[in-house]
Amino acid sequence: MSDEVIWHCLRHNHCSFMAKIETGLFCRNPYNATGICNRSSCPLANSRYATIRDHDGIFYLYMKTAERAHLPNKLWERVKLPRNYEKAMEVIKKHLEHWPELLVHKIKQRLTKMTQYRIRMRRLQLKVSASL
C-alpha cells in the first residue's frame, strides 16, 4: 500500500501507539525517532525510515526499506554503531547517504541526545559510587 493511504488510516481511524494529551499528539512506538505523532516521524507510515535504539548500552542504527516489507521478521536492518561519537556519525552518514536530509538530520540529533544521556548517566554513577 501507499504510505499516504497507511498514514490516513493511522491518523484518522486508529493507531495503538498514538497518545493524545493536552499539549499534542505523541507516539509510543519504540522505532519513532522523535516521539511526535506526525507523517514524517511515523515508522509505520513510511516505507523508508531509520532510527537509533539502545540495547544494553550499545547503540544500533535501524533502517527500514520497502524491499524488505514482505519479510516482517527482517523488516529492520540493524547496524551496530561504534562507541566513539565521530565514528558513529560517519557510519550513519555512510549508511544513510542517499536518504532524505531531514531524516538523516533527525537521526544525527537522536544520536547526539542519546550520547549526552549516556555521558550524564556515567557521571551520576561515578558521583554516587564516589560518595559511598
Automatic annotation (TrEMBL):
InterPro entries linked: Ribosomal_eL28/Mak16
A Gene Ontology BP annotation from the UniProt entry: maturation of LSU-rRNA
Domain of life: Eukaryota
Pfam families with a match to the protein in the record: Ribosomal_L28e
Main location: nucleus
Cellular localisation: Nucleus
GO terms under cellular component: nucleolus; preribosome, large subunit precursor
Protein family: Belongs to the MAK16 family.
Name used for this protein in its record: Ribosomal eL28/Mak16 domain-containing protein
Organism: Aegilops tauschii subsp. strangulata (Goatgrass)
Native organism taxonomy: Eukaryota, Viridiplantae, Streptophyta, Embryophyta, Tracheophyta
